[in-house]
Design a protein that fits this description.
The structure is a single chain. With about 160 residues, the chain is of the alpha+beta class. The chain folds into two domains: about 55 residues; about 80 residues, Orthogonal Bundle (Arc Repressor Mutant, subunit A), CATH 1.10.10. Helix content is about 35%, strand content about 15%. The protein has five helices and five strands; from the N terminus they run E-E-E-H-H-E-H-H-E-H. The chain has a three-stranded antiparallel β-sheet with strand order 1-2-3, with helices on one face. Helix 2 crosses helix 4 and helix 3 crosses helix 4. The chain is globular, with a radius of gyration of 15 Å. The termini are far apart.
Length: about 160
């Protein structure tokens, strides 16, 4: 197993993101909400993620095909797996996600797990909304969540 990490900075239409690889898989894709400089040393996986994000933001990609490696609890891993079943351009509630995980009372825990999702956009936690249809919680910020949902809705209607 590779013990190095490789980093790329990605300029998305919704702000700067960081992509981190361990050489075998992508281990993080996240929004950057600080001004600290990041030293870039991308590998082929970071470049592959950059290419797929470019395709996503151009409207030509609706699903990602990247090797991902996460380190979550079994519950978090189950929540992140459930997120990947939400079709592009659609949304579900936290309650619906909990039901899909066969744990309908775990609505708050689902929200917490989604907040720890290490793969922004690629694992689409932005597609989960409040039961009443309102936008709630997104570690990338509510304006980014709203932008992503609007972007996907517009592209799915084409």
């Amino acid at each position: 197993m590779n013990t190095n990490t490789y980093t790329a900075v990605y300029q998305a239409p919704i702000g700067t993101m960081v992509i981190i690889s361990n050489g075998d898989a992508i281990i993080e894709i996240d929004h950057i909400n600080h001004e600290e400089p990041i030293t870039e040393n991308p590998d082929k996986l970071c470049e592959q993620a950059t290419k797929q994000l470019d395709e996503y933001f151009s409207g030509s990609r609706t699903a990602f095909d990247l090797p991902l490696s996460s380190k979550g609890t079994p519950f978090q891993e189950a929540a992140w797996l459930a997120l990947q079943t939400i079709p592009y351009g659609e949304t579900i509630s936290y309650g619906e996600q909990a039901k899909r995980m066969e744990n309908p009372k775990a609505v708050r825990a689902v929200g917490g797990a989604n907040g720890k999702n290490p793969f922004s956009i690629v694992i689409p936690c932005h597609r989960v909304i409040g039961a009443n249809g309102t936008l709630t919680g997104y570690t990338g910020g509510m304006s980014r969540k709203e932008w992503l949902l609007d972007f996907e809705k517009q592209n799915s209607e084409k």
